[in-house]
Amino acid sequence: MAPLSPPPDEELTRRAQAGETGALGLLLARHQASMRAVALSLLGFGPDADDAVQDAALIALLRIGDVRDPAAVGPWLRAIVRNAARSRLRSSSETPGLEGLDHLPPCYHEPSHPERLIEQHAMSDWIWHAVEELPQQLRLVLMLRHFSGIDSYQEIAAACEIPIGTVRSRLNQAKGKMANALLSAATQAHSDASVLTEESRHEAVATLQASERGTLPREISELWPAETEMIGKLSKPGERIHPVPVMRRTLDAGVRQRLRHVVASRDITIWEMDVTSLPGAKNPCPPRLAWLMFRRNGIVQKLRVVFPKPAH
Q1: pLDDT band at 103 (very low <50, low <70, confident <90, very high)
Q2: Which residues are CB-neighbours of 18 under 8 A, at least 6 positions away?
Q3: Most CB within 10 Å of its CB: which of 188, 200, 260, 298?
Q4: In this structure, which topology does domain 7-104 adopt according to CATH?
Q5: Which residues make Cβ contacts (< 8 Å) with residue 4, sequence separation at least 6?
Q6: Pair 159, 299: CB distance under 8 Å
Q7: Which has the closest alpha carbon to 99: 109, 84, 88?
């Protein structure tokens, strides 16, 4: 009996689009060598090439339904790798978001924005369900890298106060675990991820407005109980500092903040701010900052303010 010939790309792609995760695994295994060759041609040997291939595999998992010509899935996969590699060659990303999603054809020509990329994705709730399955340390670096404007390895390392090598290691672990979580949760019902983001956006705006008025209403002050602690650069070694007095000192120094972007998970929230310093302000603040908040049952336990470097 003649051995069965392997199914063609077109068949595997259609099966993957129908929800057969094993078919997608076969596709990625079949094209792994050519995907890696593209990464090596652009990035050379090293961890960046490995990262580009891993990113491409994750994006393929999320976007396999977008393939219009199933027989041409090989070039589609290599295009994802090429875009992921080129994003690493740029000194900084033009826009944050899942790397490669805003460059893939077809129909994604409007300027990308983190919220728009996620909200347009038909499986956004599924993605965020998988993100929530990650351990906190891994989730934080993944959220910064793929959903915020603090997306370079150097900025993430500074924000998390860890070495760049640890950033790479955690991102690699996060991407592997997230791929598994996406596959295992593909058939489950998922909560609306946008609700959490909108709630956090309202909290951010209300917090800034209340801080400028000098009084925090009850619903906002409950977010910042006595045990909340400021950590990082704005804290003092050996001294416990509550965030609210720091907010007031910042305002008194002539610094104003405007909410730019929100990233929210169950126990990590990121508020990115545009900053202006009034004329004559003492120690003017950099033009961007971000609040990294670590929560328990919605209450902020720790706040770290970080200052991303401006894009070049």
Answers
A1: very low
A2: none
A3: 200
A4: Rna Polymerase Sigma Factor; Chain: A (1.10.1740)
A5: none
A6: no
A7: 84
Sign of CA dihedral 128, 196, 264, 260: positive
Residue 91 has pLDDT above 50, yes or no: no
SS3 state of residue 259 = strand
Residue 291's SS3 state is strand
For the chain, report the end-to-end CA distance as a whole number of angstroms: 63
Query: Do the Cβ atoms of 144 and 270 come closer than 8 Å?
Result: yes
Residue with tokens 């310093």: 277
- The single-letter DSSP state of residue 134 is S
More confident residue, 161 or 233: 161
Phi and psi at residue 286, in whole multiples of 5°?
A: -60, 160
Rounded-to-integer distance, Cα 128 and Cα 85, Å: 25
User: For the packed helices 9-17 and 73-89, what is the interaxial angle rounded to 10 degrees?
Assistant: 70
Q: Give 193-306's CATH code, choosing from 3.10.450.50, 3.30.457.10, 3.40.50.2000, 1.10.600.10.
A: 3.10.450.50
| Nearest Cα residue to 202 out of 218, 190, 219, 215 | 219
Q: Which CATH code of 3.30.420.340, 3.30.70.1620, 1.10.10.10, 3.40.50.880 fits the domain covering 123-191? A: 1.10.10.10
Beta bridge partners of 257: 275
Provide the residue type at 235 as one letter.
S
Could you tell me where the DSSP H helices lie in the chain?
9-17, 21-43, 47-63, 73-89, 114-120, 124-132, 136-147, 153-160, 164-184, 193-213, 218-221, 243-252
The whole-model pTM stands at 0.68
Contact 274, 257 (CB under 8 A): yes
22-57 pLDDT, tens digit per residue, is: 677 788 888 888 998 989 998 888 777 887 887 787
The mean pLDDT of the chain is: 78
